[in-house]
Amino acid sequence: MSLVFQIVVTTVVTCLAVVLLLVAVIGDHNHAAWFAFAFGIVAHASFRDVRMRWREAHQFTGYGDGEDNVRAIR
Fold first, then answer.
1. Is the pTM of this model over 0.85?
2. Residue 21 needs a FRET pair 20 to 30 A away by CA distance; which of 3, 57, 58, 65 works?
3. What is the domain extent for residue 16?
4. Which 8-state DSSP code applies to residue 59?
């Protein structure tokens, strides 16, 4: 999965979790709360993976030289 696609998926899953949480709070729906919780866990795990892959792709070549070693994103 490319990094850009994973960022888009993470954003969509996070938005779904927020909408489900609002539905659960406003409409008093217990099932929506559980789905929001599940989507939140998936979004959090995906966000952590995106952050790790982003840092891997933007590592510095040396210590303090300021040159960015941007590798191809898978």
1. no
2. 3
3. 3-70
4. E
